[in-house]
Amino acid sequence: MGEKGCIKCGSTNAATKEVAMTGTGLSKLFDVQHNQFTVVYCKNCGYAEFYHKKSSTASNLLDLFFGQ
């Protein structure tokens, strides 16, 4: 089976970026460390998927993004 690419455009040119998101109310102040995500995005079309930072390593995330 060949290498899969982005589900939107088929490109295999992807990158990752760490981001933090805030919730509402007091969680904006006290729960930042629990709202950290890794974004895997296609450099060709911009499609992105968010993964909770604690759930996987970056190498596994690229495999998930490409459907492998």
Number of helices: 2
Percentage beta strand: 25-35%
Shape: elongated
Gyration radius, in Å: 14 Å
Report strand order across the widest sheet. Answer: 1-2-3
Task: Report the order of strands and helices.
Answer: EHEEH
Largest sheet: 3 strands, antiparallel
- The percent range for helix content is 10-25%
Descriptive account of the structure:
With 68 residues, this protein is α+β, with helices and mostly antiparallel strands. The protein contains two helices and three strands. Strands 1-2-3 form a three-stranded antiparallel β-sheet, with helices on one face.
Structure at a glance:
The protein has 68 residues and is of the alpha+beta class. 18% of the residues lie in helices and 28% in strands.
What layout of secondary structure does this protein have?
Blueprint: E1 14-20, H1 27-30, E2 36-42, E3 48-52, H2 58-65
Antiparallel strand pairs: 1-2, 2-3
Please tag this protein with its features.
18% helix; 2 helices; alpha+beta; 3 strands; 68 residues; three-stranded antiparallel sheet
